[in-house]
C-alpha cells in the first residue's frame, strides 16, 4: 500500500502486523466470553468512572456521523461502546462490541491497537487498516494515562470510512485530556501536595497545565503534560523527590502564582497547595470511649504498622475505613511503597484470585500476553488494603494465609514464587467471629489479619464533626474555587444522623460543589430538603460565637471581614467589635 511507504507510523505498524503473522483476509477475531468480560469490567472500574462523562459528550457530538465511541482497557479490550451501532454493518457491530480485542497483535493496524503501540493519538483511514475486513471503518484513538503514569486504556471513535472526519481526532484528544485531568485531580489524597505549573501564568488552572502530586517530598503522581515536559517516566514516580526536580525551590504552600526553575533550567509559574490536616476519628478498641485527642492512638497504630503488625479495622459501611488506612500508610515507614486496595466484595469471585496473586501469560482464556503481577506484588514495599475481607471466598483464604506466613507469592499458572514484604490492613463491617462460627472464615486467618484491631465509630459519633466537614470540603476543592460553607450550613450537617456515613457526606458535598458558582458562600437553603433544619435549632446565637471560631473563620477568609461576617451570619460591625477583642 502506497501510504505505508511515506507514512512512518503506518510503515512501522504494518511491519509489526506482518511480523505477528496475521492473515490479512482473516475473519477470526480475538474476543472473550460474557462471563470473562464481567471480570475485565470490574478490574477497570476507575477508568470507566472517569471516562463516562467524556464518552457521553463525545457520543452526542458524533450523533449525526453514524459512529460510535469506544473505551478500551490497556490491552485494547473493548469495555464500552456508545453511539449509533445500528447504522454500522452487522459484522462491524459485532467487532466493535464490548469483549472484542483490538490490539495490533490481534487485529493488525487499527487506531486502538496502534495508539497503544505508540502511546499517542492516531487515526486510521479505511484502506490503511491491515486486515481487509476492517477497511470499511474510519477510526481515531488516543491513549489514556492513569495518575501513576501507566497507560490505562484508549478512547476511540469508529465509523464508516466514507464519512468525512476532519475534526474527529482532535475531539478524541481533547476528551482524553479532560478524562486524565479529572482523574488526576480526583486522585489527590488529603495528606498530599498538589502542584500546578505552566510556562505562562495564564496557563494555570486549565487543561494544559502540568500537575504533580507529592507525598512527603516524593513525587507520587503526574499528568501526561508534566511527564513529557519534565522528562519523567513512570518508573520515577514514587522515587524522585521535589528537590531533584526543582533544585532551587522549597515545598512551601503558595496560593498566589510564583516562579521557579526545574532541573532543566525551564521557568514555570506555579501554585503549590499544602495537604489538609488529617483528622483521625478512631477508637483504639471497640469498647473504649472515644478520645478527644487521638494523637496517642494514631502514634500507636503507626508504630504497629511499622513493625509489620497486621491491622484489622472494623466499622459500618461508609465509615471511612479506607480513608484512615491511607492516612496511616502515608505516615508509616511504608509510605515510599504503594497503597494497594482491593475490595473483596466488589470483584467477582472468579477474578479475585488473579487480581490478588497475578497470573502467568496464557494462564487462562483472555489472559494478557504479558501476564499480570497481581495486587500482592504491587504492594511489595507498601501497604495491601483488603476491604470487606469478610466476603473473601473460603478457598482463597488458604492461599492468602500461606502468602502472609511465607512472604512469597506464586502467580496463577507459574511454578515460580516471588518474595514480597508489605504491611496488611484489612477492613470489614462483618463480625468475623460470627463468620468463623458459621464456617465461612478461617479462624487462623482472623488471627493473622487482626493482630491488632480498632474500630471506626459511625460518623454520627465523631468528635469535631464540623471541622471534619470543613476539611472534606477543602479536599474536594471547594475553597480552591472560592466557595465556602456558611457556618449555619456546617452546623446543620454536623447534627445529621448520616446513615451512609462518610460516603454519604462526601456525596452530598460533591453535589453542593457541582451546583455552586465560584466565589459563593453556601447557605442552608442550598441543601436538599431532606437535609435542611431550622437554623435556630442548630446554629449558636451570636453570644455563642466563641473567640476561636471567629479567629479560625477570619484566617480561612484571609482577613476578609465581609466574607467572614457572612459565613458566621453576623453583621460586619459586630464582627469588627468581636475581632478586636480576639486580637486584644
Question: If you had to describe this structure to a student in words, what would you say it looks like?
Answer:
The protein has four domains: 175 residues, Beta-Lactamase (2-Layer Sandwich), CATH 3.30.450.40; 81 residues, no CATH class; 163 residues, P-loop containing nucleotide triphosphate hydrolases (Rossmann fold, 3-Layer(aba) Sandwich), CATH 3.40.50; 124 residues, Orthogonal Bundle (Helicase, Ruva Protein, domain 3), CATH 1.10.8. Helix content is 38%, strand content 17%. Strand 7 and strand 8 form a beta hairpin. The termini are far apart. About 5% of the residues have low confidence. With 584 residues, it is an alpha/beta fold. Strands 2-1-5-4-3 form a five-stranded antiparallel β-sheet, sandwiched between helices.
Helix content: 25-40%
Number of helices: 24
Describe the largest sheet: 5 strands, antiparallel
The CATH C-level name of the largest domain is Alpha Beta
Taking Cα atoms only, what radius of gyration do you get, to the nearest Å?
Answer: 27 Å
For the largest sheet, list the strands in their spatial order: 2-1-5-4-3
Question: Low-confidence runs (pLDDT<50, min 5 residues)?
Answer: 277-295, 534-544
Q: How much strand content do the residues show?
A: 15-25%
Amino acid at each position: 500500500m502506497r501510504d505505508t511507504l511515506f507514512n512512518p507510523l503506518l510503515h512501522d505498524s504494518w511491519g509489526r502486523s506482518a511480523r505477528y503473522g496475521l492473515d490479512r483476509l482473516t475473519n477470526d477475531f480475538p474476543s472473550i466470553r460474557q462471563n470473562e468480560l464481567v471480570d475485565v469490567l470490574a478490574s477497570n472500574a476507575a477508568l470507566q468512572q472517569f471516562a463516562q462523562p467524556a464518552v457521553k459528550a463525545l457520543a452526542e457530538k458524533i450523533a449525526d456521523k453514524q459512529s460510535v465511541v469506544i473505551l478500551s482497557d490497556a490491552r485494547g479490550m473493548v469495555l464500552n461502546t456508545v453511539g449509533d451501532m445500528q447504522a454500522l454493518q452487522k459484522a462491524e457491530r459485532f467487532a466493535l462490541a464490548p469483549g472484542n480485542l483490538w490490539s495490533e497483535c490481534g487485529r493488525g493496524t487499527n487506531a486502538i491497537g496502534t495508539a497503544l503501540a505508540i502511546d499517542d493519538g492516531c487515526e486510521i483511514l479505511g484502506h490503511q487498516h491491515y486486515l481487509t475486513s476492517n477497511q470499511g471503518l474510519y477510526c481515531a484513538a488516543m491513549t489514556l494515562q492513569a495518575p501513576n503514569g501507566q497507560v490505562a486504556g484508549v478512547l476511540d471513535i469508529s465509523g464508516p470510512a466514507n464519512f468525512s472526519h476532519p475534526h474527529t481526532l482532535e475531539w478524541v484528544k481533547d476528551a482524553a485530556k479532560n478524562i486524565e485531568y479529572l482523574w488526576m485531580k480526583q486522585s489527590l489524597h488529603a495528606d498530599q501536595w498538589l502542584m500546578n505549573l505552566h510556562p505562562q501564568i495564564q496557563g494555570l488552572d486549565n487543561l494544559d497545565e502540568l500537575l504533580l502530586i507529592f507525598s512527603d517530598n516524593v513525587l507520587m503522581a503526574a499528568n501526561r503534560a508534566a511527564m513529557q515536559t519534565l522528562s519523567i517516566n513512570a518508573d520515577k514516580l514514587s522515587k524522585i523527590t521535589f528537590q531533584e526536580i526543582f533544585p532551587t525551590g522549597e515545598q512551601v504552600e503558595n496560593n498566589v502564582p510564583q516562579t521557579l526553575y526545574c532541573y532543566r533550567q525551564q521557568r514555570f509559574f506555579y501554585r503549590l497547595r499544602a495537604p489538609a490536616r488529617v483528622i483521625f476519628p478512631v477508637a483504639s478498641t471497640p469498647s473504649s470511649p472515644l478520645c478527644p485527642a487521638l494523637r496517642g492512638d494514631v502514634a500507636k497504630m503507626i508504630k504497629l504498622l511499622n513493625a509489620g503488625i497486621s491491622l484489622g479495622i472494623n466499622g459500618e459501611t461508609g465509615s471511612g475505613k479506607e480513608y484512615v488506612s491511607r492516612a496511616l500508610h502515608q505516615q508509616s515507614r511504608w509510605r515510599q511503597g504503594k497503597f494497594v486496595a482491593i475490595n473483596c466484595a466488589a470483584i467477582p469471585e472468579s477474578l479475585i484470585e488473579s487480581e490478588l496473586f497475578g497470573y502467568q501469560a496464557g494462564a487462562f482464556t483472555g489472559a494478557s500476553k504479558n501476564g499480570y503481577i497481581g495486587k500482592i506484588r504491587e504492594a511489595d514495599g507498601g501497604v495491601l488494603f483488603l476491604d470487606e475481607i469478610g466476603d473473601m471466598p473460603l478457598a482463597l483464604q488458604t492461599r492468602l494465609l500461606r502468602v502472609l506466613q511465607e512472604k512469597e507469592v506464586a502467580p496463577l499458572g507459574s511454578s515460580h514464587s516471588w518474595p514480597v514484604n508489605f504491611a496488611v490492613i484489612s477492613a470489614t463491617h462483618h463480625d468475623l467471629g460470627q463468620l468463623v462460627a458459621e464456617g465461612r472464615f478461617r479462624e487462623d486467618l482472623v488471627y493473622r489479619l487482626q493482630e491488632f484491631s480498632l474500630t471506626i465509630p459511625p460518623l454520627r459519633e465523631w468528635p469535631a464533626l464540623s471541622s471534619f466537614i470543613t476539611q472534606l470540603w477543602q479536599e474536594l476543592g471547594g475553597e480552591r474555587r472560592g466557595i465556602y460553607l456558611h457556618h449555619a450550613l456546617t452546623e446543620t450537617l454536623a447534627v445529621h444522623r448520616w446513615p451512609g456515613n462518610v460516603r454519604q457526606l462526601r456525596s452530598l458535598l460533591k453535589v453542593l460543589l457541582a451546583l455552586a458558582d465560584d466565589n459563593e458562600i453556601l447557605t442552608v437553603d442550598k441543601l436538599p430538603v431532606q437535609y435542611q433544619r431550622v437554623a435556630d435549632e442548630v446554629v449558636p446565637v451570636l453570644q455563642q460565637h466563641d473567640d476561636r471560631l471567629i479567629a479560625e473563620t477570619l484566617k480561612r477568609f484571609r482577613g476578609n471581614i465581609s466574607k467572614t461576617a457572612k459565613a458566621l451570619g453576623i453583621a460586619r460591625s459586630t464582627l469588627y467589635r468581636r475581632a478586636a477583642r480576639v486580637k486584644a
